[in-house]
């Protein structure tokens, strides 16, 4: 019987994951089926249970269920535990394993696809929601010089920094948007949902060092407002489409034991945006 996988979210209609995993399956010769499953907002656990009963072997978890997936997982990977969120489920007959591949996806996109070193860099992470939490641990593992977290709600940024203080007290700091004035960063990562609202986070001008990269986790056919603002200030820009494909490749590796090549899948997705 063909192994079944799915992306589970609400909403889920917009998800590109079925196309990505179908392309990975073709390229690696794996026989899998990959569906979109819309779970009711109050019915995530039931949706996972019925998918499991119908032969589901794994799932990608998207908004708003990543924290619920964390609580539902019987076993957690280290990176899921650090993130406090799960974006990938491996469904075994006896247990559900929760993993988080978002941070590894971002790091792969930066290092491999964009050729941007992280070690020794001054990073500004804007946002302190689920995505910021997911990428912070893997970013810190790459030994940047500093990571400043700035968020609209300062308390949430402080909470996130406190969560990682044990492993990176010397590297991590919290900054208000105003306090960033006069500072320079090599990599600025927009992990806010501001682009969804068609706006850029309220960052001061001139925060980009020479040759800096502005990376928006959100992706779109053109520049997001954050990317447009950064480009106007001379930064190079990238969106999160590469991260999306790389996090999926990590999930595919967990499920199928083979990490698919990503370049042609990323190119095809970019053309289809
Ligand atoms: P959350 O809802 O958990 O967090 C939202 C964050 O955005 C908070 O820090 C919030 O600040 C901030 N925010 C929202 N609106 C604004 C605004 N108008 N101005 C400034 N800050 C704002 O969302 P996620 O962390 O799950 O997702 C964030 C983004 O990352 C989304 O765009 C999502 O699509 C993208 N993403 C991309 C992935 C990829 O593979 N490319 C993977 C995962 C996420 P506050 O705390 O003050 O409310």
Q: Can you describe this structure?
A:
- The protein folds into 2 domains: 3-100 and 247-272, Rossmann fold, CATH 3.40.50; 103-239, Rossmann fold, CATH 3.40.50.720.
- The chain starts with a strand and ends with a helix.
- The protein has helices spanning 17-28, 44-53, 66-72, 78-83, 102-113, 130-141, 154-168, 225-232, 241-256, 263-272; strands spanning 3-9, 32-38, 56-61, 75-76, 88-91, 96-99, 122-126, 146-150, 172-174, 185-190, 208-216, 236-238.
- The longest helix is centred in the last third of the chain and has 16 residues, at 241-256.
- Helix 5 (102-113) packs across helix 6.
- It is globular and about 60 Å long.
- The chain contains 10 helices and 12 strands.
- The strands form 2 sheets. The protein has a 6-stranded mixed β-sheet, sandwiched between helices. A 6-stranded parallel β-sheet has the order 9-8-7-10-11-12, sandwiched between helices.
- Helix 6 links the parallel strand 7 (122-126) and strand 8.
- Bound molecules: NADPH dihydro-nicotinamide-adenine-dinucleotide phosphate.
- Residues 102, 105, 127-132, 151-153, 156, 191-197, 199, 201, 217-219, 240, 243-244, 247 line the site of NADPH dihydro-nicotinamide-adenine-dinucleotide phosphate.
- NADPH dihydro-nicotinamide-adenine-dinucleotide phosphate binds next to helix 5, helix 6 and helix 9.
Q: What is the H-and-E element order?
A: EHEHEHEHEEHEHEHEEEHEHH
| Through-space gap between termini | 33 Å
CATH superfamily of the largest domain: NAD(P)-binding Rossmann-like Domain
Major sheet summary line = 6 strands, mixed
As a percent range, the share of helical residues equals: 25-40%
Supply the number of structural domains: 2
Which structural category do the helix and sheet elements fall into?
Answer: alpha/beta
User: What is the global morphology?
Assistant: globular
Lateral arrangement of strands in the main beta sheet:
2-1-3-5-6-4
Mean pLDDT, rounded to whole units?
96
């Amino acid at each position: 019987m063909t192994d079944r996988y799915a992306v589970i979210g609400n909403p889920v209609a917009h998800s590109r994951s079925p196309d990505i995993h179908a392309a990975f399956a073709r390229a690696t010769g794996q026989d899998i089926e990959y569906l979109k499953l819309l779970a009711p907002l109050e019915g995530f656990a039931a949706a996972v249970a019925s998918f499991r009963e119908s032969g589901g072997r794994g799932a990608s978890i998207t908004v708003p269920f990543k924290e619920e997936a964390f609580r539902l997982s019987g076993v957690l990977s280290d990176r899921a535990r650090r993130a406090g969120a799960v974006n990938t489920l491996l469904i075994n007959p006896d247990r559900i394993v929760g993993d988080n591949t978002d941070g590894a996806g971002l790091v792969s996109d930066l290092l491999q696809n964009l050729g941007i070193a992280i070690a020794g860099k001054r990073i500004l992470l804007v946002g302190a929601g689920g995505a910021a939490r997911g990428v912070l641990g893997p970013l810190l593992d790459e030994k940047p010089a500093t990571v400043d977290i700035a968020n609209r709600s300062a308390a949430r940024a402080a909470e996130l920094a406190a969560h990682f203080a044990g492993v990176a007290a010397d590297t991590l700091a919290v900054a208000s948007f105003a306090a960033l004035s006069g500072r320079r960063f090599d990599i600025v990562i927009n992990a806010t949902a501001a682009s969804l609202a068609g706006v850029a986070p309220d960052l001061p001008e001139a925060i980009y060092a020479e040759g800096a990269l502005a990376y928006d986790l959100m992706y779109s056919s053109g520049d997001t407002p954050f990317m447009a603002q950064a480009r106007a200030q001379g930064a190079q820009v990238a969106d999160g489409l590469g991260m999306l494909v790389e996090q999926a490749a990590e999930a595919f590796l967990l499920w199928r034991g083979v990490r698919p090549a990503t370049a042609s899948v990323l190119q095809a997705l970019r053309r289809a945006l």
